[in-house]
Design a protein that fits this description.
Layout: E1 23-27, E2 34-39, E3 42-45, H1 46-51, H2 62-65, H3 71-75, H4 78-92, E4 106-108, E5 113-115, E6 123-126, H5 130-141, E7 157-159, E8 165-167, E9 172-173, E10 176-179, E11 188-191, E12 195-196, E13 199-205, E14 224-231, E15 234-235, H6 236-242, H7 250-253, E16 256-258, E17 263-264, H8 265-268, E18 272-273, E19 293-294, E20 297-303, E21 310-316, H9 324-332, E22 343-345, H10 360-363, E23 371-372, E24 378-379, E25 387-396, E26 399-411
Parallel strand pairs: 6-22, 8-16, 9-26
Antiparallel strand pairs: 1-2, 1-5, 2-3, 3-4, 6-7, 10-11, 12-15, 13-14, 13-22, 14-16, 14-17, 18-19, 20-21, 20-25, 23-24, 25-26
């Protein structure tokens, strides 16, 4: 990749380099919620750039840039959205002076409020990490029956609850519900005692389809606008009691946390890698060519109420058995339509080592291996007052493209 230099002062380890330029929705005391681009520790107000006529050739409607979601902007299509990103990149290159000292263009990130980047009308959660699926299977069914018979043939998923997807920084309340202890004769009701995270990535659909149509795996990336960090919270005790026979419900629908910035697929192309070998061979509609996985380094931090952050997990998105193209192809193979702004989450991302497990269920192995924090306390699941932070970035040949973070604090259950 060609090395680029900006006239802006950007920290070397910034997630938001000139190679990235992700899109999000921000507001300030002076500015209503609108579309912005992250660069270093600042945000570029795209409506201000448009007012300077820099997007004139692209014919970008101003109302798309002054909207409180990215949906209408994304619906313009990749030719225009990628065009905006390329123009912004050129304006930031060393030697360009067209945005220097222009009033209203740049906003400090620390002075802005970030919002959910898209209106998510539909959300699907997959189960695509073979390490995670195997670990959970061993816990509940034993080594001989760890993976269900269908797991290596289809990207398993379920339809999730879109209304409870929240932005980074918004607290969650510990959910209540029914659960049943192993030695109990009947279920009990109360706050979840096994509140867990799920370290995930999500992709945002960028091109709609009509009911009855399908998306071939080889064309799936054209329907994906970009990616976000995603924490699909889970109440394991509620989930364990309710999920047979129809799957997740109240144990999952109380909250899922999404990062603020959507990193485009184009910014991630340089970091593509080959995925794990799929055996047995998949059916023809799921076959993909070339490098479909992405080398995204992931970590999870746990900060206790009166302590420092502890990094409890380091994983990588490249481990995923089923890739995004296969997930979208399978999702639509029955004719299910998708819409701009739909969110597809990867499922928990776990690696082969214990330190790469993407959930507390695995990290503490169903409570048998408590995690010790540097303040002397231990965790098997999360306590009230804990703050959980997910981070992710790609880095290669000195080029860094990151997602920022998704941070959430856990509040006590309501009485």
């Amino acid at each position: 990749m060609k090395k680029l230099e900006s006239w802006l002062d950007i920290q070397e380890n910034s997630d938001f380099s000139i190679y990235n330029l992700p899109f999000g929705i921000f507001s300030t005391k002076e500015k209503t919620a609108r579309v912005g681009v992250a660069i270093g520790d600042q945000i570029i107000d795209l409506s201000a750039v448009a007012a300077l006529k820099h997007f004139k050739k692209l014919d970008i409607p101003m109302e798309c840039l002054l909207n409180d979601s990215l949906n209408d902007f994304i619906e313009l299509g990749k030719k225009k959205t990628n065009g905006v990103r390329k123009i912004v990149q050129e304006l930031l290159l060393k030697g360009s002076r067209k945005l220097r000292n222009k009033e209203g263009v740049f906003v400090k990130q620390k002075s802005a409020k970030m919002h959910l980047p898209v209106v998510v009308k539909d959300y699907t959660d997959f189960y695509s990490s073979i390490e995670h699926a195997t670990n959970v299977g061993i816990m509940f069914r034993g080594k001989d029956n760890a993976l269900m018979p269908n797991w290596k043939h289809i990207p398993v998923g379920y339809h999730g609850r879109a209304s409870s997807i929240i932005p980074s920084g918004q607290n969650i309340v510990r959910p209540k519900g029914q659960s049943k202890a192993k030695d109990a004769t009947k279920p009990s009701f109360g706050p979840s005692k096994r509140l867990d995270m799920e370290l995930e990535m999500g992709f945002i659909v960028g091109k709609s389809t009509k009911l009855g149509n399908t998306i071939p795996a080889e064309k799936a990336n054209a329907h994906i606008f970009g990616m976000v960090l995603f924490n699909d919270w889970s109440a394991r005790d509620i989930q364990a009691w309710e999920y047979v026979p129809l799957g997740p419900f109240l144990g999952k629908s109380f909250a899922s946390s999404m990062s603020a910035w959507v990193v485009t697929l184009e910014a991630l192309e340089y970091f593509r890698v080959n995925g794990p070998k799929q055996s047995p061979a998949v059916l023809p509609y799921l076959k993909t060519k070339g490098k479909q996985n992405i080398d995204i380094k992931l970590e999870v931090g746990l900060t206790p109420p009166k302590g420092n952050e502890n990094i409890i997990c380091k994983s990588n998105y490249k481990f995923m058995y089923w890739n995004q193209a296969q997930q979208l192809a399978h999702h639509t193979v029955n004719g299910c339509n998708v819409n701009v702004g739909d969110l597809m989450a990867s499922g928990t991302i776990s690696g082969k080592s214990e330190s790469a497990y993407g959930s507390m269920l695995e990290l503490a192995w169903m409570g048998t291996k408590p995690i010790r924090l540097d303040d002397g306390t231990t965790r098997v699941f999360f306590n009230d007052g804990d703050t959980v932070t997910l981070r992710g970035h790609c880095e290669k040949d000195g080029i860094r493209v990151g997602f920022g973070e998704v941070k959430t604090k856990i509040l006590p259950a309501k009485k």
